[in-house]
Amino acid sequence: MDTAYHRWRKLKNTCMQVLTCLCALLVVMPLGLIFYHVLKSGIGSVNWAFFTQLPKPVGEEGGGMANAIVGTFELLGLAAVMGIPVGVLGGVFLAEYGSQRLNWWIRFAADGLNGVPSIIWGMVVYALVVVPMKGFSAWAGGIVLGTMMIPLIMRTTEEVLLLVPGGYREAALALGISQWRTVLQIVVRTALKGIITGILLALARVSGETAPLLFTAFGNRFWNRHLTEPISAIPLQVFSYAISPYEDWRRQAWAGALVLLLFVAIVNVSVRLLTRDRFAQRS
Amino acid sequence: MARRPRGDRAFYWLTLLMALSVFVLIVLIGYELAHGSHLALRKFGWRFLVSSDWDPVNEQFGALPFIFGTLVSSAIALLIAVPLSIATAVYLTEIAPFWLRQVLTLFIELLAAVPSVILGLWGIFVMVPWCRVHLFPRLRDTLGFLPLFKGPIYGLSMLAGGIIVAIMILPIITSVSREILRSVPGLQREAAYALGATRWEVTRIAVLSYARKGLFGAVILGLGRALGETMAVTMVIGNRPEIAASLFAPGYTLASVVANEFTEATTDLYLHALFELGLVLLGLTVLVNCLAQLLLKTFAGAAVRPQT
């Protein structure tokens, strides 16, 4: 049995297994490196002033990103108000109503929208909102993030609604509950955890978007006093500091990156740990 | 069938309206980009695509250097990312112990969640200096006989842009390929094992060749993402609109020229030319994404969802 050919096959088998393992390590290595460098370079500049002060003018040390942090949450709030109802109700339609053919096209379109580069969303909202309003504004920034969330939320909502057993629907309908209340109070409620997961992941995803905000929210070195004025966001501030020639600004870019990275990572990890049961069942 | 109660009908129409919003968005994207670029479309016509002049002062605009930059950086990214991601997907579905699969999957999902501006920041201050000092000189020493690896080394370059894009598309190709490999029926594997195949032979004969079409879809989906990557690429590719044979020379992509110059566009024609670049980018990504989705959706009827 133990011929030379057999040994060669076993050797090749071992080699390929080791090789794929190395590839897997190589794929996760950038993640480790990014966390390491962002922590190392950012931790020293994340202090009280960073969260409470406005950016200082060039040449002055210190200052913070308070306006950008608040701005990010304002933009996310606007985006949520727009994106969540449309996304969730659209997902309900895909899961509960419609014909196979129509839904195929809606899914196809939603997946296509997910693939549209974020910079293009920025250009479209620039033409739709910024030009008629004659200026960059928080509204435009919120609208661009909100529209980007719609297809994301629609698809995750549909996916979790389909996991609700058909028997639940039939039982509710048999009790004489109208269909729309069955959908909202039985089906959506059963899948609520999954829907919220999808919403949180979508929010985490758009919170790091920079490209579409460049010419909608535009950025602002001061507080945004009105939603029709430009507004800052952490990623915008990180970008403008990163390409600046000033040492102190670059230091702040790392700090902003650290705060943003931790926010995104915490949302992602906690959401995935909370819903691990569901994912384990599917695998 | 009796008329349904008013509440039901209202709710049905409400959800239908929301679901149809995706078509409205698609029409809006197409219309706004076409409308926003009509001056440039009319003035330059097809010449826009093949001209390599980019001279805002004299109002001469051509997209060729940017199309070139986008395609080359995406090609580099695919060359790096495809073997790595597919090997990782194989490791995750066929080889790794169960606990490690979960840990690695979480890490890969986290890598997908890293905002591109942070990747760009890391790229400028960590990766590019390392490439300039270690990787690029070594490449020039060993492969310098190729025109691809000749010329001065700046650090900010097409190759650096390609590597950053590769890091960005690794997670998506990996997770889609993993879904594909998981949807390969277990019987395929068992049949190959029963013939006495080793684990690698099972993977190659029964799994990879069965899943070929789906894996191709995953790669194309990754290409779609690579074409549209903006921030990280803008920060490391060097931003110079020229077509150079050397990968060490700076380049420029469609997405990054829009990101950099949009707010500086002083004349209408300039702005319209930028919108036309957006239109070209949209055309490329739509084409690639449609192909990817068709491949993924027809793959053995498996319900593989293109991830985001």
CATH fold assignment of chain B: MetI-like fold
Count the DSSP helices of chain B: 13
Shape of chain A: flat
The CATH architecture assignment of the domain at 68-234 in chain A turns out to be: Orthogonal Bundle
- Quaternary structure of the protein: heterodimer
Write the layout of secondary structure elements.
The complex is a heterodimer of chains A (283) and B (308).
Chain A: H1 4-42, H2 48-52, H3 66-96, H4 100-114, H5 118-133, H6 138-162, H7 166-174, H8 179-190, H9 192-207, H10 234-242, H11 247-274, H12 276-282
Chain B: H1 6-36, H2 38-44, H3 47-50, E1 54-55, E2 60-61, H4 64-95, H5 98-113, H6 116-143, H7 158-182, H8 186-194, H9 199-208, H10 212-228, H11 231-236, H12 254-261, H13 268-298
Antiparallel strand pairs in B: 1-2
Helix pairs in contact in B: 1-13, 2-13, 4-7, 4-10, 5-7, 7-10, 8-9, 10-13, 12-13
Describe the protein's architecture and organization.
The complex is a heterodimer of chains A (283) and B (308). Chain A is mostly helical and 283 residues long. Chain A is built from twelve helices and no strands. Chain A has a domain of 167 residues: Orthogonal Bundle (MetI-like fold). The longest helix of chain A has 39 residues. Chain A is flat, with a radius of gyration of 24 Å. The two termini of chain A are 37 Å apart. Chain B is an all-alpha fold and 308 residues long. Chain B has a single domain, classed as MetI-like fold. Helix content of chain B is 73%, strand content 1%. In chain B, strand 1 and strand 2 form a beta hairpin. The longest helix of chain B is centred in the first third of the chain and has 32 residues. The mean pLDDT of chain B is 92. Classes of the chains: A mainly alpha (283), B mainly alpha (308). At the A-B interface, helix 1, helix 3, helix 4, helix 5 and helix 6 of A face helix 1, helix 4, helix 5, helix 6 and helix 7 of B.
